[in-house]
Amino acid sequence: PPTNLTLALVTFCGCCGPLRPRYKRLVDNIFPEDPKDGLSKSDMEKLTFYAVSAPEKLDRIGAYLAERLMAFTHNAPGFGSVYYLRQEFVKFANIEEDTPSYHRRYDFFVSQFSAMCHSTHEDVDTRKRIRVAGIKGLQGVVRKTVNDELQAIIWEPQHMDKLIPSMLFNMQDSDDLDRAGHPSTPSGSGQDGEENPGALAESCFRELLGRAAYGNMNNAVRPVLVHLDNHHLWDPNEFAVSCFRIIMYSIQAQHSHHVIQQVLNHLDTHNRNTPRVRAGIVQVLLETVAIAAKGSVGPTVLEVFNTLLKHLRMSVDFELGETSRRNSGSSVSSNRGKESEERIVQNAIIQTIGFFGGNLPDYQRAEVMMFIMGKVPVYGTPCHTLDTVKIGSVNKWTHGTKRIQTMLLSSLIMVTSGFKSKSMAAALPPPFLDPLFSISLMEDNELRQLVLEILHNIIDRHDNRAKLRGIRIIPNVAALKIKREKISKQDVAFMKKHGQQLYRHIYLGCKEDDNSHKNFELLFTTLAVLTIELANEEVVIDLIRLAVALQDMALANEENMSMFIRCGIMALVAAYLNFLSQMIANPPFCQHVSKVIELRNMDAPYLLPEHIFRDKCPTPESLDKDDRPLYFQTADMAECLAGPGYNAERLSIPYVPQVTDEDRLTRRKSFVDTISLQVDIVSNSLPDKSQLAEEITFETLKKAIDTTGLEEQEREKRRQVMEKFQKAPFEEIAAHCESKANMLHDRLAQIFELTIRPPPSPSGVVSISAGHAQHQSVPVYEMKFPDLCVY
After folding, report:
1. Degrees (nearest 5) of the Cα angle 37, 43, 45?
2. Quick one: three-class SS letters along 711-761?
3. Nearby residues of 340 by Cβ (< 8 Å), 6 or more positions away
4. Smallest Cα–Cα separation from 15: which of 28, 4, 30, 3?
5. What are phi and psi of 397, to 5 degrees?
6. Is the Cβ–Cβ distance between 110 and 78 less than 8 Å?
7. pLDDT tens, position by position, 81-93
8. 483, 604, 584, 467: which is closest to 524 by C-alpha?
9. Cα–Cα distance between 248 and 166 in angstroms, integer?
10. Can you give the pTM of this predicted structure?
């Protein structure tokens, strides 16, 4: 029959070589009878020349070559066939085509070579060679397709999910192979010319990433993150860090923000994972931003900080949750471990914030500083994201809020480290300075320390802090070789505007009863840095007035401060005036300060920093105001500074800190306090029986009408007011007037608060209870007035 004849002819033609297509004959010729004989070089060159001459046949050549290789490897098992397969494909991949193919696909090759990369052959050398062959095969696929715009399919997830893990698997497993075989070398070759799978996979990984275009970055990075998840490589994270270093150094710089965004998103997906996994991801992020900060980060600067601050907040919440569970008595040991692990996450986040911020240009760093400060919870700001319990009009700030403040301020210290601004007005704008100073008023010495360290980072533009470390009486300030420049006009204007605010917070910060040795050290450094960086003649006078006011506050002790705090303030004043007198190089001033210090050394060593801040230093029961030689005298210092340059007359005007909105916010009374105030006013309005029983005599009437002393006091008061308005700087006069206005505002606020619950009135209904008459309080809006009294 014709069908049998046709089949016979086809079979005959297939068996006869000359009747087969030429490309098949050329492919058949390259296969040796024995794999050990290796590749026939001349026949391979013929096949290559034919493929170049007839590129339209490449698809057929590839398909037939794959068919023969499948049969070849099946009939001749062993490494020789595999090595031969890889060699032939690499040759094919190196063929350069003039005309691209619109329909060629490499799914089969990617699958087969990826399987070879994961070989688990029992023989180590064979396994190593199979993996090398698979990696070189994938490298051939990459080189064949990655530069072809029509082969964008290679970047699709189904291929990247095979290519990338195959390379990472060998990079990760190279240590095991090297221990069994030979040490890894950067070139990819081991001893005796043997190729190392780990080094070869890394080279292929770098080549692939280097060829990745803008739109392919996400598909290239996502499989890396998935691989690290599947193999639990975030803890420990050495391999993860190594992978992303390779990625960041291999890709084009303008694509860095894609990688950073991918890691940020991955951190979000793991926000409920263990602390060590989250810490591992954050440390990887640190490596990426550290490399990206040297080049281009793109529009993700604030996004990085926003995500990190969000996870910092979450970590604090987790820590507090573990603390509360621990306090409830459940799993004490495990909860303590989780709590300490959360600290690892927080420290990693702070380190990342600081390193990233420290590598940004100054203009971007200033924006980041403002951004972080806007996240710090302070009094008077909305607290809907904080752990607060609202009682009346006061927010009782919990431990969680304090922890958040500590973490964010620590981040600010990292970001501001090394920050150099030409103008203080640009470095410390009001939106940044005001909340920072609000935190400095809080009753927590650790927070106040962090605020002072941030100020040091910003104000100290010549790195003099290391020379000023430790509060002490410096015998020779000139030997410190302090670096300084002439005060600029912009900084003079800054001190005119914000100087009183700076002095006020130093003054208030000194009298806090929980101040420690470190607090006084930082306060001394603050005064010294202000003197170096921002002090002209006018500021020097203001700083001396501030020092005298601190001394007077310690002597008067109107705040009922502990003796340690009072002696610490005295020591701070001595250390600072000693430094200031030598900085302005005024011999009479230096002599006066030295004389007081010498007397203290002999009679009152507890008023010097070297003694009072020593462990178990004995303190006196009281400070004698009348022992004048032990204290710095305003008149003596004014006499020393008399002459051109300094307006010494202003020293006679006592420094008084201005009252601001912060005081009203921190001193607002709770609802319970308002009621108690109301009751006190009502009870105080009732006459006391002892007052009614006081006998009225001639001497009592004489005292009542004798106004001689009052007139004298009034004249003295008017004279002081006139003198103050004539000699005091405008900023201080404005601050004084503002404090008066604020006090009036406070009084009016108290009066208005009384209308909430007015005192008992005659219009109330009298009730008899337990034999006592009680007036029931009636609100004003419920009182009934006669018609004649109603308009």
Report:
1. 120
2. HHHHHHHHHHHHHHHHHCCHHHHHHHHHHHHHHHHHHHHHHHHHCCCCCCC
3. none
4. 28
5. -80, 125
6. no
7. 555 655 655 655 5
8. 467
9. 20
10. 0.69
